[in-house]
Design a protein that fits this description.
The structure holds two protein chains of two kinds. Chain A is of the alpha/beta class. Chain A contains 13 helices and 14 strands. The chains are: A alpha/beta, B mainly alpha.
Amino acid sequence: MATVLDNVPATASGRDGSAVIQVETLRHSYGERVALNGVSFDVRAGEIFALLGPNGSGKTTLFRILSTLMLPTSGRALVGGCDAATQPDEVRRRIGVVFQSQSVDIKLSAAENLWHQGHLYGLHGAELKSRIKEMLARVGLADRAGDRVETFSGGMRRRVELAKGLMHHPSVLLLDEPTTGLDPGARRDLWQYLHELRTQERVSVIVTTHLMEEAERCDRLAILSEGQVVALGTPLALRSEIGGDVIVLETSDPASLAARIKQKFQVAATVLENKVRMERKEGHRFVPDLVEAFPGEVQSISMSKPTLEDVFIARTGHRFWTEDAQQAAQQQEKH
Amino acid sequence: MAQAAITPAAVVTPRVNPFLPAFTLWWREVVRFYRQLARVVGVIASPLIFWVVIGAGFGKSLQSGAIGTGNYLLYFFPGALMMIVLFTSIFTMMSVIEDRNEGFLLSVMVAPVHRSGIVLGKVLGGTTLSAIQGLLFLVVAPFIGIRLGLEQVLITVLVTFLVSFALTALGFAIAWRMESSQGFHAIINLFLIPLWLLSGALFPMSGATGWIKMLMLVNPLKYGMDALLLTMFPATAPVTTLPLWGSIAVLAAFAVAVFAAGFVIANRRSTVPAA
Protein backbone atom coordinates (compact mmCIF):
# COMPACT_ATOMS: atom_id res chain seq x y z
CA MET A 1 0.00 0.00 0.00
CA ALA A 2 2.98 2.29 0.51
CA THR A 3 3.08 3.43 -3.07
CA VAL A 4 -0.44 4.68 -2.83
CA LEU A 5 0.55 7.03 -0.06
CA ASP A 6 3.48 8.64 -1.83
CA ASN A 7 2.90 12.27 -2.43
CA VAL A 8 4.35 12.67 -5.89
CA PRO A 9 3.75 16.00 -7.59
CA ALA A 10 1.61 16.03 -10.69
CA THR A 11 3.43 15.31 -13.88
CA ALA A 12 2.91 17.52 -16.89
CA SER A 13 0.55 15.07 -18.50
CA GLY A 14 -1.55 14.80 -15.36
CA ARG A 15 -1.01 11.02 -15.20
CA ASP A 16 0.31 9.82 -11.91
CA GLY A 17 1.22 6.24 -11.12
CA SER A 18 0.81 6.68 -7.37
CA ALA A 19 -2.69 8.08 -7.62
CA VAL A 20 -5.35 6.71 -5.30
CA ILE A 21 -8.00 7.09 -7.93
CA GLN A 22 -7.27 6.73 -11.62
CA VAL A 23 -9.95 7.37 -14.15
CA GLU A 24 -8.96 6.36 -17.66
CA THR A 25 -10.92 7.38 -20.77
CA LEU A 26 -14.18 6.55 -19.12
CA ARG A 27 -17.22 6.48 -21.36
CA HIS A 28 -20.80 5.85 -20.48
CA SER A 29 -24.08 5.98 -22.37
CA TYR A 30 -27.63 5.52 -21.22
CA GLY A 31 -29.02 4.10 -24.44
CA GLU A 32 -28.59 6.88 -26.98
CA ARG A 33 -27.65 9.55 -24.50
CA VAL A 34 -23.92 9.94 -23.90
CA ALA A 35 -23.26 10.85 -20.26
CA LEU A 36 -19.48 10.47 -20.16
CA ASN A 37 -17.36 10.91 -23.23
CA GLY A 38 -13.78 9.91 -22.46
CA VAL A 39 -13.05 11.26 -18.99
CA SER A 40 -9.56 10.89 -17.50
CA PHE A 41 -8.04 12.23 -14.29
CA ASP A 42 -6.14 11.13 -11.18
CA VAL A 43 -6.68 11.82 -7.53
CA ARG A 44 -3.65 11.63 -5.25
CA ALA A 45 -3.48 10.49 -1.64
CA GLY A 46 -4.47 13.14 0.83
CA GLU A 47 -6.02 15.43 -1.71
CA ILE A 48 -9.44 17.02 -1.92
CA PHE A 49 -10.52 16.76 -5.51
CA ALA A 50 -13.67 18.39 -6.86
CA LEU A 51 -15.73 17.40 -9.86
CA LEU A 52 -17.35 20.66 -10.81
CA GLY A 53 -20.07 20.78 -13.40
CA PRO A 54 -23.65 21.83 -14.04
CA ASN A 55 -26.48 19.32 -13.79
CA GLY A 56 -26.27 16.82 -16.60
CA SER A 57 -22.52 17.21 -17.05
CA GLY A 58 -21.88 13.60 -16.03
CA LYS A 59 -20.89 14.04 -12.36
CA THR A 60 -23.43 11.60 -10.99
CA THR A 61 -22.66 9.02 -13.67
CA LEU A 62 -18.99 9.21 -12.78
CA PHE A 63 -19.89 8.91 -9.11
CA ARG A 64 -22.00 5.80 -9.72
CA ILE A 65 -19.17 4.13 -11.61
CA LEU A 66 -16.56 4.99 -8.96
CA SER A 67 -18.79 3.72 -6.18
CA THR A 68 -19.27 0.37 -8.02
CA LEU A 69 -23.00 0.87 -8.51
CA MET A 70 -22.75 0.76 -12.27
CA LEU A 71 -20.44 -0.58 -14.97
CA PRO A 72 -19.02 1.91 -17.47
CA THR A 73 -19.62 1.38 -21.18
CA SER A 74 -15.85 1.52 -21.68
CA GLY A 75 -12.72 2.78 -19.98
CA ARG A 76 -11.54 2.10 -16.44
CA ALA A 77 -11.92 3.57 -12.98
CA LEU A 78 -9.34 2.37 -10.44
CA VAL A 79 -9.45 2.91 -6.70
CA GLY A 80 -6.24 1.93 -4.90
CA GLY A 81 -5.24 0.10 -8.07
CA CYS A 82 -8.44 -1.99 -8.15
CA ASP A 83 -10.84 -1.79 -11.05
CA ALA A 84 -14.34 -0.72 -10.00
CA ALA A 85 -15.80 -2.82 -12.80
CA THR A 86 -14.00 -6.11 -12.23
CA GLN A 87 -13.02 -5.95 -8.54
CA PRO A 88 -16.01 -4.27 -6.95
CA ASP A 89 -15.42 -5.80 -3.51
CA GLU A 90 -11.83 -4.59 -3.40
CA VAL A 91 -12.99 -1.10 -4.27
CA ARG A 92 -15.82 -1.23 -1.73
CA ARG A 93 -13.33 -2.12 1.00
CA ARG A 94 -11.44 1.08 0.28
CA ILE A 95 -14.15 3.68 -0.08
CA GLY A 96 -16.64 5.52 2.08
CA VAL A 97 -19.59 6.97 0.21
CA VAL A 98 -21.93 9.82 1.03
CA PHE A 99 -24.82 10.02 -1.37
CA GLN A 100 -26.67 13.05 -2.53
CA SER A 101 -29.97 11.31 -1.97
CA GLN A 102 -30.94 10.39 1.55
CA SER A 103 -29.81 6.92 2.52
CA VAL A 104 -30.48 7.03 6.26
CA ASP A 105 -33.42 5.04 7.58
CA ILE A 106 -35.76 7.56 9.18
CA LYS A 107 -37.52 4.89 11.25
CA LEU A 108 -34.27 4.21 13.09
CA SER A 109 -32.48 6.51 15.51
CA ALA A 110 -29.22 8.20 14.58
CA ALA A 111 -27.24 5.70 16.66
CA GLU A 112 -29.16 2.75 15.21
CA ASN A 113 -28.42 3.93 11.69
CA LEU A 114 -24.72 3.96 12.52
CA TRP A 115 -25.00 0.62 14.30
CA HIS A 116 -26.51 -0.85 11.16
CA GLN A 117 -23.91 0.81 8.95
CA GLY A 118 -21.06 -0.43 11.16
CA HIS A 119 -22.28 -4.01 10.80
CA LEU A 120 -22.16 -3.70 7.03
CA TYR A 121 -18.44 -2.94 7.41
CA GLY A 122 -17.78 -5.73 9.86
CA LEU A 123 -17.61 -3.53 12.97
CA HIS A 124 -19.20 -4.91 16.13
CA GLY A 125 -19.14 -4.94 19.89
CA ALA A 126 -17.26 -2.36 21.92
CA GLU A 127 -15.35 -1.03 18.93
CA LEU A 128 -18.58 -0.32 17.11
CA LYS A 129 -20.06 1.40 20.16
CA SER A 130 -17.10 3.70 20.60
CA ARG A 131 -17.07 4.44 16.87
CA ILE A 132 -20.73 5.43 16.97
CA LYS A 133 -20.05 7.79 19.87
CA GLU A 134 -17.05 9.26 18.13
CA MET A 135 -18.90 9.86 14.85
CA LEU A 136 -21.97 11.36 16.46
CA ALA A 137 -19.79 13.73 18.46
CA ARG A 138 -17.91 14.67 15.31
CA VAL A 139 -21.07 15.66 13.45
CA GLY A 140 -22.50 17.35 16.56
CA LEU A 141 -25.38 14.96 17.15
CA ALA A 142 -24.23 13.29 20.38
CA ASP A 143 -27.23 14.61 22.31
CA ARG A 144 -29.68 13.32 19.68
CA ALA A 145 -28.21 9.82 19.36
CA GLY A 146 -31.35 8.03 20.50
CA ASP A 147 -33.84 10.11 18.53
CA ARG A 148 -35.39 8.77 15.38
CA VAL A 149 -34.07 10.39 12.23
CA GLU A 150 -37.64 11.20 11.11
CA THR A 151 -37.66 13.92 13.80
CA PHE A 152 -34.49 15.52 12.39
CA SER A 153 -34.20 18.58 10.16
CA GLY A 154 -32.75 18.26 6.67
CA GLY A 155 -29.35 19.51 7.82
CA MET A 156 -29.21 17.04 10.68
CA ARG A 157 -30.10 14.19 8.35
CA ARG A 158 -27.22 15.19 6.11
CA ARG A 159 -24.92 15.00 9.10
CA VAL A 160 -26.10 11.47 9.92
CA GLU A 161 -25.47 10.67 6.27
CA LEU A 162 -21.94 11.95 6.57
CA ALA A 163 -21.34 10.02 9.79
CA LYS A 164 -22.53 6.87 7.99
CA GLY A 165 -20.01 7.35 5.20
CA LEU A 166 -17.16 7.88 7.66
CA MET A 167 -18.01 5.13 10.17
CA HIS A 168 -15.36 2.71 8.94
CA HIS A 169 -12.58 5.32 8.56
CA PRO A 170 -12.20 4.93 4.82
CA SER A 171 -9.01 6.09 3.15
CA VAL A 172 -10.97 7.30 0.14
CA LEU A 173 -14.12 9.30 0.62
CA LEU A 174 -16.60 9.90 -2.19
CA LEU A 175 -19.18 12.62 -1.62
CA ASP A 176 -21.95 13.46 -4.06
CA GLU A 177 -23.11 17.05 -3.59
CA PRO A 178 -22.57 16.75 0.16
CA THR A 179 -23.68 20.24 1.12
CA THR A 180 -27.12 20.05 -0.51
CA GLY A 181 -29.65 21.21 2.05
CA LEU A 182 -27.06 22.41 4.57
CA ASP A 183 -27.21 25.92 6.00
CA PRO A 184 -24.09 28.10 5.62
CA GLY A 185 -22.82 27.26 9.11
CA ALA A 186 -23.12 23.51 8.59
CA ARG A 187 -21.54 23.88 5.16
CA ARG A 188 -18.52 25.59 6.71
CA ASP A 189 -18.25 22.87 9.37
CA LEU A 190 -18.36 20.16 6.73
CA TRP A 191 -15.58 21.72 4.73
CA GLN A 192 -13.49 22.26 7.79
CA TYR A 193 -13.98 18.63 8.66
CA LEU A 194 -12.98 17.47 5.17
CA HIS A 195 -9.80 19.53 5.44
CA GLU A 196 -9.07 17.97 8.83
CA LEU A 197 -9.54 14.48 7.42
CA ARG A 198 -7.18 15.25 4.61
CA THR A 199 -4.39 16.77 6.69
CA GLN A 200 -4.63 14.57 9.78
CA GLU A 201 -5.50 11.21 8.26
CA ARG A 202 -4.46 11.72 4.65
CA VAL A 203 -7.90 10.73 3.45
CA SER A 204 -8.40 11.34 -0.24
CA VAL A 205 -11.67 13.09 -0.89
CA ILE A 206 -13.59 13.30 -4.14
CA VAL A 207 -16.49 15.67 -4.00
CA THR A 208 -18.95 16.50 -6.77
CA THR A 209 -20.44 19.95 -6.73
CA HIS A 210 -22.13 22.50 -8.89
CA LEU A 211 -21.03 25.34 -6.62
CA MET A 212 -18.00 27.39 -7.69
CA GLU A 213 -17.20 28.49 -4.17
CA GLU A 214 -16.99 24.90 -3.00
CA ALA A 215 -14.71 23.93 -5.85
CA GLU A 216 -12.47 26.85 -4.82
CA ARG A 217 -11.84 25.13 -1.48
CA CYS A 218 -10.43 21.99 -3.10
CA ASP A 219 -6.82 21.19 -3.83
CA ARG A 220 -7.52 20.35 -7.43
CA LEU A 221 -10.59 20.10 -9.58
CA ALA A 222 -11.84 18.82 -12.87
CA ILE A 223 -14.50 20.85 -14.63
CA LEU A 224 -16.98 18.64 -16.43
CA SER A 225 -19.16 19.75 -19.28
CA GLU A 226 -21.32 17.44 -21.34
CA GLY A 227 -19.41 14.37 -20.30
CA GLN A 228 -15.94 15.72 -20.87
CA VAL A 229 -13.23 17.18 -18.68
CA VAL A 230 -12.82 20.73 -20.00
CA ALA A 231 -10.34 21.89 -17.36
CA LEU A 232 -8.14 20.17 -14.78
CA GLY A 233 -5.83 21.71 -12.21
CA THR A 234 -5.67 23.70 -9.00
CA PRO A 235 -8.24 26.49 -8.67
CA LEU A 236 -5.44 29.06 -8.78
CA ALA A 237 -3.78 27.62 -11.86
CA LEU A 238 -7.08 27.44 -13.70
CA ARG A 239 -8.01 30.98 -12.87
CA SER A 240 -4.61 32.31 -13.88
CA GLU A 241 -5.00 30.68 -17.29
CA ILE A 242 -7.48 33.41 -18.07
CA GLY A 243 -5.51 36.23 -19.62
CA GLY A 244 -5.86 38.90 -16.96
CA ASP A 245 -9.19 40.40 -15.98
CA VAL A 246 -12.66 39.65 -17.25
CA ILE A 247 -14.56 42.59 -18.72
CA VAL A 248 -18.26 42.41 -19.49
CA LEU A 249 -20.20 45.28 -21.05
CA GLU A 250 -23.81 45.85 -22.00
CA THR A 251 -24.81 47.52 -25.22
CA SER A 252 -27.76 47.70 -27.61
CA ASP A 253 -26.06 45.80 -30.46
CA PRO A 254 -23.54 43.42 -28.89
CA ALA A 255 -22.62 41.54 -32.06
CA SER A 256 -21.57 44.60 -33.98
CA LEU A 257 -19.72 46.14 -31.05
CA ALA A 258 -17.85 42.89 -30.39
CA ALA A 259 -16.69 42.83 -34.00
CA ARG A 260 -15.50 46.42 -33.82
CA ILE A 261 -13.69 45.84 -30.52
CA LYS A 262 -11.90 42.89 -32.07
CA GLN A 263 -10.82 45.02 -34.98
CA LYS A 264 -9.67 48.00 -32.94
CA PHE A 265 -8.01 46.34 -29.94
CA GLN A 266 -7.17 42.82 -31.21
CA VAL A 267 -9.05 41.35 -28.26
CA ALA A 268 -11.13 38.19 -28.53
CA ALA A 269 -14.48 39.72 -27.65
CA THR A 270 -17.40 37.31 -27.58
CA VAL A 271 -21.14 37.73 -27.18
CA LEU A 272 -22.69 35.85 -24.31
CA GLU A 273 -26.28 36.37 -23.24
CA ASN A 274 -26.50 39.73 -25.04
CA LYS A 275 -23.36 41.01 -23.37
CA VAL A 276 -19.93 41.50 -24.80
CA ARG A 277 -17.29 39.61 -22.90
CA MET A 278 -13.49 39.70 -23.13
CA GLU A 279 -10.34 38.96 -21.20
CA ARG A 280 -7.52 41.47 -20.96
CA LYS A 281 -4.47 42.04 -18.81
CA GLU A 282 -4.54 45.23 -16.74
CA GLY A 283 -8.25 45.61 -17.24
CA HIS A 284 -8.39 48.80 -15.20
CA ARG A 285 -6.37 50.57 -17.89
CA PHE A 286 -8.32 49.02 -20.72
CA VAL A 287 -11.80 49.94 -19.48
CA PRO A 288 -11.44 53.75 -19.98
CA ASP A 289 -9.96 53.23 -23.46
CA LEU A 290 -12.83 50.99 -24.36
CA VAL A 291 -15.54 53.36 -23.19
CA GLU A 292 -13.90 56.33 -24.93
CA ALA A 293 -13.45 54.44 -28.18
CA PHE A 294 -17.20 53.84 -28.56
CA PRO A 295 -18.85 56.91 -27.03
CA GLY A 296 -22.45 56.48 -26.03
CA GLU A 297 -22.59 52.80 -26.92
CA VAL A 298 -21.58 51.25 -23.62
CA GLN A 299 -24.55 51.12 -21.30
CA SER A 300 -22.70 49.44 -18.45
CA ILE A 301 -19.31 47.85 -17.97
CA SER A 302 -17.83 45.66 -15.29
CA MET A 303 -14.42 44.27 -14.60
CA SER A 304 -13.55 41.37 -12.32
CA LYS A 305 -10.80 38.94 -11.43
CA PRO A 306 -11.42 35.63 -13.18
CA THR A 307 -13.49 33.02 -11.38
CA LEU A 308 -13.92 29.33 -12.08
CA GLU A 309 -17.02 30.24 -13.99
CA ASP A 310 -14.85 32.31 -16.33
CA VAL A 311 -12.67 29.24 -16.79
CA PHE A 312 -15.80 27.29 -17.66
CA ILE A 313 -16.91 29.94 -20.14
CA ALA A 314 -13.47 30.17 -21.69
CA ARG A 315 -13.37 26.40 -22.22
CA THR A 316 -16.93 25.73 -23.32
CA GLY A 317 -18.09 29.01 -24.86
CA HIS A 318 -21.25 29.08 -22.78
CA ARG A 319 -22.27 29.92 -19.27
CA PHE A 320 -22.24 27.39 -16.46
CA TRP A 321 -26.02 27.44 -16.20
CA THR A 322 -27.48 27.50 -19.68
CA GLU A 323 -31.17 27.77 -20.43
CA ASP A 324 -32.79 24.46 -21.28
CA ALA A 325 -33.64 25.76 -24.73
CA GLN A 326 -30.06 26.74 -25.31
CA GLN A 327 -28.87 23.34 -24.24
CA ALA A 328 -31.35 21.65 -26.50
CA ALA A 329 -30.17 23.77 -29.41
CA GLN A 330 -26.57 22.80 -28.75
CA GLN A 331 -27.57 19.16 -28.61
CA GLN A 332 -29.26 19.49 -31.99
CA GLU A 333 -26.23 21.09 -33.57
CA LYS A 334 -24.12 18.17 -32.48
CA HIS A 335 -26.30 15.48 -34.02
CA MET B 1 11.16 10.55 -3.74
CA ALA B 2 8.60 9.25 -1.31
CA GLN B 3 7.80 11.21 1.80
CA ALA B 4 7.35 9.30 5.02
CA ALA B 5 3.76 8.22 4.75
CA ILE B 6 1.36 9.03 7.56
CA THR B 7 -0.70 5.88 7.74
CA PRO B 8 -4.42 6.52 7.77
CA ALA B 9 -6.47 4.86 10.49
CA ALA B 10 -7.72 2.18 8.13
CA VAL B 11 -6.69 1.79 4.54
CA VAL B 12 -8.65 -1.29 3.59
CA THR B 13 -11.65 -2.63 5.44
CA PRO B 14 -11.08 -6.31 6.29
CA ARG B 15 -13.35 -8.84 4.64
CA VAL B 16 -16.76 -8.91 6.24
CA ASN B 17 -18.39 -12.15 7.33
CA PRO B 18 -21.75 -12.12 5.46
CA PHE B 19 -23.72 -13.16 8.54
CA LEU B 20 -23.20 -9.85 10.31
CA PRO B 21 -24.75 -7.79 7.50
CA ALA B 22 -27.46 -10.43 7.14
CA PHE B 23 -28.23 -10.14 10.84
CA THR B 24 -28.34 -6.34 10.72
CA LEU B 25 -30.61 -6.28 7.68
CA TRP B 26 -32.92 -8.81 9.33
CA TRP B 27 -32.92 -6.72 12.51
CA ARG B 28 -33.78 -3.57 10.61
CA GLU B 29 -36.66 -5.28 8.82
CA VAL B 30 -38.14 -6.39 12.14
CA VAL B 31 -37.57 -3.04 13.89
CA ARG B 32 -39.14 -1.14 11.03
CA PHE B 33 -42.10 -3.46 11.24
CA TYR B 34 -42.90 -3.01 14.91
CA ARG B 35 -42.31 0.73 14.76
CA GLN B 36 -45.16 1.11 12.28
CA LEU B 37 -48.27 0.44 14.29
CA ALA B 38 -50.52 0.05 11.25
CA ARG B 39 -48.45 -2.87 10.03
CA VAL B 40 -48.52 -4.58 13.41
CA VAL B 41 -52.28 -4.24 13.63
CA GLY B 42 -52.62 -5.54 10.09
CA VAL B 43 -50.50 -8.61 10.72
CA ILE B 44 -52.26 -9.58 13.93
CA ALA B 45 -55.81 -8.65 13.03
CA SER B 46 -56.03 -9.85 9.44
CA PRO B 47 -55.78 -13.61 10.10
CA LEU B 48 -58.21 -13.32 12.99
CA ILE B 49 -60.74 -11.28 11.03
CA PHE B 50 -60.33 -13.59 8.09
CA TRP B 51 -61.17 -16.52 10.29
CA VAL B 52 -64.14 -14.87 11.96
CA VAL B 53 -65.65 -13.91 8.62
CA ILE B 54 -65.03 -17.30 7.03
CA GLY B 55 -66.28 -19.12 10.07
CA ALA B 56 -69.41 -17.02 10.52
CA GLY B 57 -70.16 -16.73 6.83
CA PHE B 58 -70.04 -19.65 4.47
CA GLY B 59 -68.52 -21.88 7.12
CA LYS B 60 -71.90 -22.93 8.51
CA SER B 61 -73.47 -23.78 5.20
CA LEU B 62 -70.50 -25.91 4.21
CA GLN B 63 -70.37 -27.67 7.53
CA SER B 64 -73.95 -28.78 7.05
CA GLY B 65 -72.75 -31.40 4.61
CA ALA B 66 -73.54 -29.61 1.36
CA ILE B 67 -70.27 -30.95 0.02
CA GLY B 68 -70.52 -34.68 0.34
CA THR B 69 -66.84 -35.12 1.27
CA GLY B 70 -67.15 -34.05 4.89
CA ASN B 71 -66.04 -30.83 6.53
CA TYR B 72 -64.88 -28.30 3.96
CA LEU B 73 -64.04 -25.74 6.61
CA LEU B 74 -61.52 -28.14 8.04
CA TYR B 75 -60.14 -28.85 4.61
CA PHE B 76 -59.88 -25.13 3.95
CA PHE B 77 -57.88 -24.40 7.12
CA PRO B 78 -54.41 -25.28 5.78
CA GLY B 79 -55.35 -23.58 2.50
CA ALA B 80 -56.15 -20.40 4.35
CA LEU B 81 -52.88 -20.67 6.27
CA MET B 82 -51.10 -21.07 2.97
CA MET B 83 -52.84 -18.05 1.52
CA ILE B 84 -51.97 -15.80 4.43
CA VAL B 85 -48.32 -16.82 4.39
CA LEU B 86 -48.17 -16.50 0.61
CA PHE B 87 -49.46 -12.97 0.40
CA THR B 88 -47.62 -11.65 3.44
CA SER B 89 -44.32 -13.17 2.34
CA ILE B 90 -44.33 -11.76 -1.13
CA PHE B 91 -45.59 -8.36 -0.12
CA THR B 92 -42.98 -7.87 2.62
CA MET B 93 -40.52 -7.56 -0.22
CA MET B 94 -42.17 -4.35 -1.32
CA SER B 95 -39.63 -3.03 1.15
CA VAL B 96 -36.93 -3.71 -1.45
CA ILE B 97 -38.62 -1.20 -3.74
CA GLU B 98 -39.08 1.26 -0.88
CA ASP B 99 -35.44 0.87 0.14
CA ARG B 100 -34.39 1.54 -3.41
CA ASN B 101 -36.62 4.58 -3.82
CA GLU B 102 -35.69 5.99 -0.43
CA GLY B 103 -32.00 5.61 -1.20
CA PHE B 104 -31.29 3.24 1.66
CA LEU B 105 -30.31 0.43 -0.67
CA LEU B 106 -27.49 2.57 -2.09
CA SER B 107 -25.51 2.52 1.12
CA VAL B 108 -25.97 -1.25 1.40
CA MET B 109 -24.89 -1.83 -2.19
CA VAL B 110 -21.59 0.03 -1.85
CA ALA B 111 -20.65 -1.80 1.34
CA PRO B 112 -18.09 -4.61 0.98
CA VAL B 113 -20.76 -7.19 1.73
CA HIS B 114 -21.19 -10.41 -0.19
CA ARG B 115 -24.51 -10.09 -2.01
CA SER B 116 -25.70 -13.35 -0.45
CA GLY B 117 -25.60 -11.57 2.94
CA ILE B 118 -27.88 -8.85 1.60
CA VAL B 119 -30.35 -11.33 0.12
CA LEU B 120 -30.30 -13.50 3.23
CA GLY B 121 -30.94 -10.56 5.58
CA LYS B 122 -33.80 -9.15 3.56
CA VAL B 123 -35.41 -12.54 2.94
CA LEU B 124 -35.12 -13.70 6.55
CA GLY B 125 -36.63 -10.39 7.68
CA GLY B 126 -39.67 -10.93 5.47
CA THR B 127 -39.83 -14.62 6.40
CA THR B 128 -39.93 -13.77 10.10
CA LEU B 129 -42.86 -11.41 9.66
CA SER B 130 -44.96 -13.72 7.50
CA ALA B 131 -44.17 -16.80 9.57
CA ILE B 132 -45.33 -14.93 12.68
CA GLN B 133 -48.57 -14.11 10.93
CA GLY B 134 -49.02 -17.69 9.78
CA LEU B 135 -48.40 -19.03 13.27
CA LEU B 136 -50.88 -16.55 14.77
CA PHE B 137 -53.43 -18.04 12.42
CA LEU B 138 -52.48 -21.49 13.62
CA VAL B 139 -53.52 -20.55 17.13
CA VAL B 140 -57.20 -20.75 16.10
CA ALA B 141 -56.84 -24.35 14.91
CA PRO B 142 -58.12 -25.95 18.15
CA PHE B 143 -61.28 -23.82 18.01
CA ILE B 144 -62.44 -25.41 14.77
CA GLY B 145 -61.63 -28.90 15.88
CA ILE B 146 -58.07 -29.40 14.68
CA ARG B 147 -56.10 -30.90 17.56
CA LEU B 148 -52.38 -30.95 16.97
CA GLY B 149 -49.75 -32.74 18.98
CA LEU B 150 -46.28 -31.27 19.58
CA GLU B 151 -44.73 -33.10 16.63
CA GLN B 152 -47.51 -31.93 14.33
CA VAL B 153 -47.08 -28.35 15.50
CA LEU B 154 -43.33 -28.48 14.89
CA ILE B 155 -43.76 -29.88 11.39
CA THR B 156 -46.42 -27.27 10.64
CA VAL B 157 -44.03 -24.55 11.84
CA LEU B 158 -41.29 -25.98 9.62
CA VAL B 159 -43.54 -26.06 6.57
CA THR B 160 -44.81 -22.53 7.31
CA PHE B 161 -41.22 -21.33 7.57
CA LEU B 162 -40.20 -22.99 4.30
CA VAL B 163 -43.19 -21.60 2.42
CA SER B 164 -42.52 -18.15 3.89
CA PHE B 165 -38.84 -18.29 3.00
CA ALA B 166 -39.44 -19.50 -0.56
CA LEU B 167 -42.14 -16.94 -1.26
CA THR B 168 -40.20 -14.08 0.33
CA ALA B 169 -37.21 -15.01 -1.80
CA LEU B 170 -39.49 -15.06 -4.85
CA GLY B 171 -40.76 -11.61 -3.86
CA PHE B 172 -37.18 -10.43 -3.49
CA ALA B 173 -36.16 -11.73 -6.91
CA ILE B 174 -39.13 -10.03 -8.55
CA ALA B 175 -38.84 -6.77 -6.59
CA TRP B 176 -35.12 -6.29 -7.18
CA ARG B 177 -35.43 -4.85 -10.68
CA MET B 178 -38.82 -3.18 -10.10
CA GLU B 179 -39.05 0.56 -9.93
CA SER B 180 -42.59 1.00 -8.70
CA SER B 181 -44.80 -0.83 -6.24
CA GLN B 182 -47.63 -0.71 -8.81
CA GLY B 183 -45.57 -2.74 -11.25
CA PHE B 184 -44.72 -5.13 -8.44
CA HIS B 185 -48.42 -5.61 -7.62
CA ALA B 186 -49.22 -6.35 -11.25
CA ILE B 187 -46.50 -8.96 -11.64
CA ILE B 188 -47.18 -10.53 -8.27
CA ASN B 189 -50.87 -11.01 -8.95
CA LEU B 190 -49.92 -12.71 -12.16
CA PHE B 191 -47.89 -15.26 -10.17
CA LEU B 192 -49.57 -15.42 -6.86
CA ILE B 193 -53.20 -16.21 -7.63
CA PRO B 194 -52.50 -19.19 -9.90
CA LEU B 195 -49.80 -20.40 -7.54
CA TRP B 196 -52.27 -20.41 -4.68
CA LEU B 197 -55.28 -21.70 -6.61
CA LEU B 198 -53.26 -24.60 -7.98
CA SER B 199 -51.67 -25.51 -4.66
CA GLY B 200 -54.62 -27.60 -3.56
CA ALA B 201 -55.57 -24.87 -1.11
CA LEU B 202 -59.00 -24.46 -2.69
CA PHE B 203 -59.69 -27.87 -4.16
CA PRO B 204 -57.82 -31.18 -3.97
CA MET B 205 -55.89 -32.45 -6.94
CA SER B 206 -58.05 -35.57 -7.10
CA GLY B 207 -60.95 -33.43 -8.30
CA ALA B 208 -58.98 -31.70 -11.07
CA THR B 209 -58.97 -32.50 -14.79
CA GLY B 210 -55.98 -33.38 -16.96
CA TRP B 211 -54.04 -30.19 -17.67
CA ILE B 212 -54.92 -28.58 -14.35
CA LYS B 213 -53.59 -31.71 -12.71
CA MET B 214 -50.34 -31.32 -14.63
CA LEU B 215 -50.00 -27.71 -13.51
CA MET B 216 -50.66 -28.71 -9.92
CA LEU B 217 -48.01 -31.41 -10.12
CA VAL B 218 -45.32 -28.86 -11.04
CA ASN B 219 -46.49 -26.27 -8.52
CA PRO B 220 -44.02 -26.42 -5.64
CA LEU B 221 -46.58 -25.00 -3.25
CA LYS B 222 -48.76 -28.04 -3.80
CA TYR B 223 -46.13 -30.04 -1.94
CA GLY B 224 -46.26 -27.55 0.92
CA MET B 225 -50.01 -27.96 0.92
CA ASP B 226 -49.69 -31.76 0.88
CA ALA B 227 -47.29 -31.59 3.81
CA LEU B 228 -49.78 -29.50 5.77
CA LEU B 229 -52.67 -31.88 5.00
CA LEU B 230 -50.62 -34.93 5.95
CA THR B 231 -49.56 -33.27 9.20
CA MET B 232 -52.92 -31.87 10.23
CA PHE B 233 -55.23 -34.67 9.15
CA PRO B 234 -53.27 -37.89 9.48
CA ALA B 235 -56.45 -39.77 10.44
CA THR B 236 -58.22 -39.06 7.13
CA ALA B 237 -55.18 -40.35 5.20
CA PRO B 238 -55.17 -37.67 2.48
CA VAL B 239 -54.06 -38.84 -0.94
CA THR B 240 -50.85 -37.02 -1.90
CA THR B 241 -48.25 -37.35 -4.62
CA LEU B 242 -45.35 -37.78 -2.22
CA PRO B 243 -45.13 -38.81 1.42
CA LEU B 244 -44.66 -36.15 4.12
CA TRP B 245 -40.89 -35.79 4.06
CA GLY B 246 -40.77 -36.13 0.30
CA SER B 247 -43.16 -33.20 0.04
CA ILE B 248 -41.09 -31.17 2.49
CA ALA B 249 -37.94 -31.96 0.50
CA VAL B 250 -39.53 -30.63 -2.70
CA LEU B 251 -40.55 -27.50 -0.85
CA ALA B 252 -37.07 -27.03 0.59
CA ALA B 253 -35.48 -27.53 -2.82
CA PHE B 254 -37.81 -24.88 -4.21
CA ALA B 255 -36.82 -22.48 -1.39
CA VAL B 256 -33.14 -22.99 -2.14
CA ALA B 257 -33.69 -22.51 -5.88
CA VAL B 258 -35.59 -19.23 -5.48
CA PHE B 259 -33.03 -17.96 -3.00
CA ALA B 260 -30.27 -18.73 -5.49
CA ALA B 261 -32.21 -16.90 -8.18
CA GLY B 262 -32.53 -13.88 -5.87
CA PHE B 263 -28.80 -13.97 -5.24
CA VAL B 264 -27.96 -14.17 -8.94
CA ILE B 265 -30.25 -11.25 -9.71
CA ALA B 266 -28.86 -9.10 -6.89
CA ASN B 267 -25.30 -9.99 -7.82
CA ARG B 268 -25.67 -9.00 -11.46
CA ARG B 269 -24.04 -5.70 -12.33
CA SER B 270 -24.78 -3.75 -15.44
CA THR B 271 -24.38 -0.43 -17.16
CA VAL B 272 -27.63 0.85 -15.72
CA PRO B 273 -27.70 2.23 -12.17
CA ALA B 274 -27.87 -0.57 -9.59
CA ALA B 275 -29.86 1.44 -7.11
